[in-house]
Amino acid sequence: MNGTFQIDLIYPASSKHPLPSKMTFSFEVGKFNLPKGFGGKKKKPETTSNKTPGKVYIDYKNYKVNKGLSDSIFKKK
């Protein structure tokens, strides 16, 4: 499978923890074949080199950092 991808993370200006508030995952992939039995009857591969773009947007909210975890698990032994 040929293609490219890019991940953009957005961090809030004022945050107690360095965690992203948004993520955009952009990708562009060429045609590819699914494994046998995954997606129905097998078709002949196409000879086109067209790429298909896509994006996934994720918003992170209400982080809970170290809630219910003992500080002792972060100490080196």
Describe this structure in words.
This protein has 77 residues and is mainly beta. Helix content is 0%, strand content 34%. The chain has no helices and three strands. It has strands spanning 3-10, 22-30, 51-59. The protein has a three-stranded antiparallel sheet, with no helix packed on it. It is elongated and about 55 Å long.
Q: First CA to last CA: what distance?
A: 43 Å
Give the overall pLDDT as a whole number: 80
Main beta sheet: 3 strands, antiparallel
Percentage of β-strand residues:
25-35%
- Radius of gyration computed on alpha carbons: 21 Å
**How many alpha or pi helices?**
0
Q: Strand order of the main beta sheet, please?
A: 1-2-3
- Unreliable stretches (pLDDT < 50, length at least 5) are none
Helix content: under 10%
List the helices and strands and how they pair.
Elements: E1 3-10, E2 22-30, E3 51-59
Antiparallel strand pairs: 1-2, 2-3
Summary tags:
77 residues; mainly beta; 3-stranded antiparallel β-sheet; 3 strands
Quick overview of this protein structure:
The chain is mainly β and 77 residues long. Helices cover 0% and strands 34% of the residues.
